[in-house]
């Protein structure tokens, strides 16, 4: 029983302690509410700001009426992912000539082709415009790159030198009136020869050699130009006075690569055929041009005789020709045929014959350069 009273007392004590704790708790809550109330306005405004931001990030929320829960992050939709870019010029390596241009074309998905950034690895070798036009500047290799965002493609391009066209010097032999005044046969030579000899003439046609060589030279010039050569003539009129030395110097200064001196032969009435006169390797002035001159002579004779049917008398070494000895480029005298031979005279004077002769000489020059 005492034990029971003791327990009741303890119980009462415990109850009164609980009441105190409860009152304390209420007091704290009261303070809390008061503090909360004083900060009410800014809290609300923060929440509004959050919602506005989320709505802006994801317009879906307003349209669907869906209000994102707290801490729910809505990722903005990415619509401009790096697009795959590809060059249409698919060769790994390709060539472009100096001075020429090439328009690159790129196919692009999900992007604006105008925003492609073009670049080259070396602007001294080639340049590229904002629209992808590549221009060759000088010999070399460049990498062309097309970039769009993180995607890029590239292409190696070889810039090649444009082949300079070959310049052919043509000297239509002789002139209306010869010049018997003398000039040295070669540089430093004590041997002096007539500046321009008179030349021969057609036994049948009476055409003078200077006229035949001019007619053929003019057609040959046209033909060679059609074939892509540059042509330099020592004379374009018959009524001139230009020595053989002067003709050679004119060709030397012109930048010509080779020189073909057109002549026709004179001899007995039965003599016939074409020959090529070239300097020997022992020639004190142009010995170094001997082998190339020989090659030129052989190339032209072969094609010339094949085209015309004129007999090939072959290449003949001649070191006594002023117009040859002053040359600085491979040079030959082409004796096209004998004007003292009636048949060859008439053939060379005919349009048909001249057409074949010109084709043959041009073919020979082509062959020389092959
Ligand atoms: Zn001649």
Structure description:
With 370 residues, the protein is α/β, with parallel strands linked by helices. The protein has two domains: 85-160, Immunoglobulin-like (Sandwich); 167-369, Aminopeptidase, CATH 3.40.630.40. The chain has nine helices and 17 strands. It has a six-stranded mixed beta sheet, with helices on both faces. It has a four-stranded mixed beta sheet with strand order 2-9-8-5, with no helix packed on it. Strands 3-7-6 form a three-stranded antiparallel beta sheet, with no helix packed on it. Strand 15 (274-278), helix 6 (290-308) and strand 16 (312-317) form a beta-alpha-beta unit. Helix 4 crosses helix 9 and helix 6 (290-308) runs antiparallel to helix 9 (351-369). The chain is elongated and about 155 Å long. Mean pLDDT is 83; it is low at 1-5 and 31-70. Zinc ion is lined by residues 173-174, 199, 209, 263. Residues 173-174, 199, 209, 263 line the site of zinc ion.
SSE layout and pairing:
Elements: H1 2-38, H2 40-57, H3 60-64, E1 85-87, E2 93-97, E3 101-103, E4 106-108, E5 117-120, E6 126-128, E7 133-136, E8 140-148, E9 151-160, E10 167-172, E11 179-184, E12 192-196, H4 209-226, E13 230-233, H5 244-254, E14 258-265, E15 274-278, H6 290-308, E16 312-317, H7 322-325, E17 331-338, H8 342-349, H9 351-369
Parallel strand pairs: 2-9, 10-13, 10-14, 14-17, 15-16
Antiparallel strand pairs: 1-4, 3-7, 5-8, 6-7, 8-9, 11-12, 15-17
Helix pairs in contact: 4-9, 6-9
This protein binds zinc ion.
